[in-house]
Amino acid sequence: MSKLAKIPVIIKEGVEVFLENNSIKVNGPKGTLTFVIPSGVKVESIDEKLQISLVDKKNDKIDAMLGLTRAIIANMVTGVNTGFEKKLELSGVGYRASLTGNELTLSLGFSHPVKVVAPKGITFTVAENIITVSGVDKDLVGNTASRIRGIRPPEPYKGKGIKYQNEKIRRKAGKAAKALGVTK
Question: Which of the ends of the chain has fewer CB neighbours closer than 10 A, N or C?
C-alpha cells in the first residue's frame, strides 16, 4: 500500500463531502468539485476524515492509484476551502498585460496582441507586471498558468518573457562574451 494513501484526508470546517457509488463530491465556500474514484479503490468517511484503501488487496496494478487518488481528494478539499493560485511575471521592454472581463490581453512583442480567455472556474488578476491565475481546481490553475507561460517562455540570453514569480532562469553568455572567455 502507498505510504501517502495511509495518511487520512482531514475534512476542514465548512467543507462537505458526499460519497456516491464510485464518485466523490466536495462542497465548500469557494465552490464544488467532483471526482470519479477509480475502480478497485475504496474511499470511506470516518470521523471527519477520509480513508483511502484497496477493495482487493491482491491487485498490484491498482495499488499505484491509491496515492494519486488521495492527493487529488486532498487537493479538492484544500481548493474548495482556500483555493489555489499561480503568479506569472512579465519581463521585457514593452511587455504588458491587461484584463477586460474574463479575457487577458497580452502585448509580448508580437505583431498582434495575444488574447487568453479564462476557462470556467478560473479568474485572472493583473497588477503591474504580475498576472495571478486563481481557482479551486489545482490541476486547472496549473495548466492555465502553463499555457500562458508557453505563449512567450523566458529566453536564456536576456531573460525576457513570461516566467513564474520565483522561477530562476539559467542565463547563457552571448557569442561575443563566450569568444572572449568572459563568464558571469
Answer: C
CATH architecture type of domain 84-164: Alpha-Beta Complex (3.90)
Amino acid identity at 78: T
Domains 3-81 and 84-164 share a fold: yes
Question: 108, 83, 89: which is closest to 30 by C-alpha?
Answer: 83
pLDDT along the chain (184 residues), means of 10: 83 91 92 92 89 80 85 94 95 92 93 94 93 96 96 92 92 75 63
| Distance (Å, whole) CA 43 – CA 54 | 9
Can you give the pLDDT at residue 64? 78
164, 100, 110, 96: which is closest to 132 by C-alpha? Answer: 164
- Each domain of the chain, given as residue ranges in start order, spans 3-81, 84-164
- Sole residue written with cell 505563449: 151
* Ramachandran area for residue 152 (φ above 0: left; ψ -120 to 50: alpha; else beta): beta
For 3, phi then psi, to 5°, come to -65, -40
